[in-house]
Amino acid sequence: MTRLFMDVTPLRESPAFRRLWVGSGLSAIGTQMTMFAVALQVYTLTHSSAAVGALALCAAVPSITVGLLGGAIADAVDRRRLVLVTGTALAVTSTGLAVQAYANVNRVWLLYLLMSLAALSGAVNQPARRTFMPRLLRPDQIPAGTALSMFTFHGSMTIGPALAGVVAAAWGLRTCYAVDAVSFVVALYSVFRLPPMPPDGGAARPGVRAVADGLAFVRRSRVLVAAFLSDLNATVLGMPFALFPAINAERFGGSPRTLGLLTSAVAVGGLVGSGLSGPLRHLTRLGRAMLVASAVWGLALAGFGLAHPLWLALLLLAVAGTADVLSVICRSTIVQNVTPDRYRGRVNAVDFVVGAACPQLGNFRAGAVGSLTTPAVSAVGGGLAVVLGAVVIRLAMPALNRYDNAGARANTGPGSGELSKASVSGG
Questions:
Q1: Helix, strand, coil percentages for the chain (3-state, nearest 5)
Q2: pLDDT value of position 277
């Protein structure tokens, strides 16, 4: 049974990773509390769903436009110092949200501005932060480290909003912002205790040429191209969240309580998937596992589109969430093991941009198709399209299906990230 559960060896063997994991987890809960609070504050001030939806643009536009440049910066400087600077900027932004709430400023434009600044800092912070794991863990521990990170991510999505609701009801929205600001103390301390982390193999001068060089490296790697296309396929064609309100009203009575259950079911599935990720430590064909998980995600969402009992809909969404987190663990491990350290900032920036933009595009697609047809048709059609896309990627780009993680690890020294040409290309 112990082989079934999440491998916690990285927490036992690496004190630096353990501190980083705890700090990131507490900060993630605080971030989810802020997301809850700012959405509720905007709606209270405007009573407009469109105004709340504009918060997504405040986060998405800076992430997409600055994310690739953030990766180039991460490959040019000491990444630990960069994360400290951008993490401090995020803490200042959270403090600004708390100050405006305590001062009763109540200006929507100020909330938009602060959230845009937070997204701008995060677009540089996240690609740099993602380079830490290969420097702190052995290559064979990266799947376990990724599973632990995904566990805190989905845990924060489950705990953060629920905790924010309790805190806001008892002490007001301002306290949610204050808790988030304080949580950065632990997160910054965990980064401060890390050793210096300059890029191996020489630093690249940040700029357009460095970004283009990073994109060229991704293009040359058939494994990376296929992995990113698999994620695009799963999210753009399958993301279902925009359909939840309509399906909830049509089938389950329209109660906000059931709508909350539909939303949280995917996160609960993510917790289960990361918690039961133990077998991944022995799996070497991670590309094949990623394609299978994407297909399961699509089939579960198609089933959700046809499900009428609430319990079945929740079960299928949980299965989809489990498949999604397993796919992410496989992709993240492939990205870290295939990428040389000098490119890690830029390749992780591509991964970050894909993760930030594609779910938003997927929700837009789901909502548009659902409006033109029906929500059920959108969910079923999107899910089946994901399955078909996984099959096409498997046939058209066999490098991902053939990818051998054991071979990649054999060519990777601890922290070096340097692989043979065959491992990078998937040949």
A1: 85, 0, 15
A2: 73
154 confidence band (pLDDT: 50, 70, 90): confident
What is the C-alpha to C-alpha distance for residues 17 and 37, in angstroms, rounded to an integer? 30
d(CA 383, CA 243): 13
Q: Where are the domains of the chain?
A: 9-425
In tens, the pLDDT along 357-373 reads 778 778 788 888 888 88
DSSP state of 199: P
Question: Rounded to whole angstroms, how far apart are CA atoms 320 and 314?
Answer: 10
**Whether residue 2 has pLDDT greater than 80:** no
Task: List the one residue out of 11, 14, 4 whose CA is nearest residue 281.
Answer: 4
CA 145 to chain centre: 14
Distance CA 182, CA 224 (A): 38
CATH class of 9-425: mainly alpha
b/e for 57-76, b at 16 or more Cβ within 10 A? ebbbbbbbebbbbbbbbbbb
